[in-house]
Amino acid sequence: MIELKAGRLRCEIAPELGGSVAGLWLGDLPVLRSTPAAQLASARLAACYPLVPFSNRIGQASLVWQGTQHPLVRNNGDEPHAIHGVGWQRPRASSTATRRRRCWRTSTGPTRPGPSPSTARTPSACGRTRWK
User: Region Disordered: start and end of each range (predicted)?
Assistant: First the structure.
């Protein structure tokens, strides 16, 4: 679990669950649907999680791009579709960090089927921050 703080604002991030935001609190008041990261069993139960390399469902886990069919990972139990990419199901590594902000990276390949491997970089910040 990674904790970011800015004054009374506190954010818990679970890198092992795709960099999911487990919760965001102002003092003891949850700002988002919040579960302490240590109690979080699934990214789907987190306050929010990364949707990379795509969001929403892709029907029958198959994408056609420029006339070529690309199979995707069926990644939600018995559901026949691909949903929200695979970034939320892969551990994330922190590439830069301060007390108030962190940048995450994860790779969606080359072990998965799909159009191409990708790397997602996601910033997280708590409080007023300017990204450079």
Answer: 75-132
